Amino acid sequence: MSHTALPPLRFNLSELSGSLGDFGTIIPLILAVALVSDVNARYVLLFFGIWFIITGLIYRLPIPLEPMKAVAVIVIAGSIGSSEIAAAGIILGIIFLVLGYGRFFGIIGKWVPQSVVRGIQLGLALLLFRASLGFIIQDFGFFLLGIAIIACFYLITRFRSIPDLSAIMVIGAGFIGGIVLYGIPPMSLIPAPQLIIPLPADFSSAFATLVLPQVVLTITNAVLATSLLTKDLFAQDVPPNRFSTTIGLMNLTSVPFGGFPMCHGAGGLAGQYRYGARTGGANIYAGIIFIILALFFSSPQVLSIIAVGVLGALLVFVGIEMGRHSLKTDSLIVTGIISVLALVSSMTIAFIVGMVVAYTMAWWQKKATPEKAVGNRK
Predict the structure, then answer these.
(1) Could you tell me if 2 and 275 are in contact, meaning their C-beta atoms sit under 8 angstroms apart?
(2) Does residue 150 contact residue 123 with C-beta atoms inside 8 Å?
(3) What is the CA radius of gyration of the chain?
(4) Residue 51 Cα distances to 166, 215, 253, angstroms
(5) Counting Cβ atoms within 10 Å, is residue 188 exposed (0-12), middle (13-18) or buried (19+)?
(6) What is the pTM of this model?
(7) pLDDT of residue 5
(8) What is the Cα–Cα distance from 212 to 200, expressed in whole angstroms?
(9) Where are the beta strands (DSSP E) in the chain?
(10) Blockwise average pLDDT, block size 10, the chain, 378 residues
(11) What pLDDT sits at residue 335?
(12) How far is the CA of 31 from the CAs of 54, 81, 229, in angstroms?
């Protein structure tokens, strides 16, 4: 994407609404990590805010940031400490910074079929639906309220030229509901971040436990699928290596100071677009919101104040948006197999099996075509 092709930044209600479109993914993961580990959610929020603003200025598009999901899930399941998380972030940062400056993504883009990338997208949509169930069960009333708000705005915007402000209304309803239920969270200034220096044992443990499961997911969803979805939504060609470079830089500069491993994400892009984001102005809004939360509110109460039912409503509609684009595939069989495996096993297994199936089908079709042609000549 050339510099002259960059769209101008906009700062209107649509961009503000779109900036909240991925909060249903980001906030629950940050909250869960902070609750089970010694990670300070305020530093995580601070670096998210800084890098949201930077990416908004660099890309001029609503390119999202998300916690690295595989790392987050493993931390939540295993109560891994901040030193090992910092080691994982440093390793991942180096890997993706190197990949961003090489020809790797040109090679992988040539050899990874589109149906495989679309399968990763559809698998993430199914995972979002599953993640929403936990929030729905906890808070069904606010879930229904969120669904009603989003559906009303969907109908209104189809017949009236007004911005879709459903995300603002849904988050606002959740925040007000949380204050009514739990009270106003405490406020205090954030102390200066301190450098975390992992031990050698942390690097070896992090590589096996956190890095390997995350690499495949980041390459497919955060880099390749995000690049593909950027073309779908904005007709903008952002090369995968650019996304890899920013992923590398953001992790190397933030995780050693208390941040959490971050990446881009096709699901986040679909979510921000679904709720009105069209330029990097949405990123700048999101960055400002995260920085304000980090600077003034104690952790993790400020995140838990939001009634979780509304987050479930946001996730449902983000999943629908994600799934809709994932169906633009050249092989529904491959895409479907990958999505189901991603849901029931892991993204790594889904990717490997999907590659095998895609190449097996291509080989079979290539073998069958000459035989058919010979039969026709006879």
Answers:
(1) no
(2) no
(3) 21
(4) 25, 20, 10
(5) exposed
(6) 0.77
(7) 62
(8) 17
(9) 66-67, 262-263
(10) 67 91 80 80 93 96 90 76 94 95 80 85 82 84 89 81 75 81 74 88 89 83 90 90 96 96 91 90 96 75 72 80 80 92 83 91 82 53
(11) 92
(12) 23, 15, 28
CA separation for the pair 220, 199 (Å, rounded)? 30
Phi, psi of 22 (to 5 degrees): -110, 5
The pLDDT, as a whole number, for residue 2 is: 46
Place of tokens 């009333």: 141
In the block, which residue shows the tokens 């999101």? 286
Tokens of 167: 């995300």
pLDDT for 247: 97
- In the numeric block, which tokens belong to residue 368? 């069958």
**Residue 309 contacts residue 174 (beta carbons within 8 Å):** yes
Instruction: Dig out the tokens for 92 from the structure.
Output: 């991942």
- Give me the residue spans of the domains in the chain: 3-368
Q: From residue 85, how far is each of 43, 134, 173 by CA, in Å?
A: 13, 25, 34
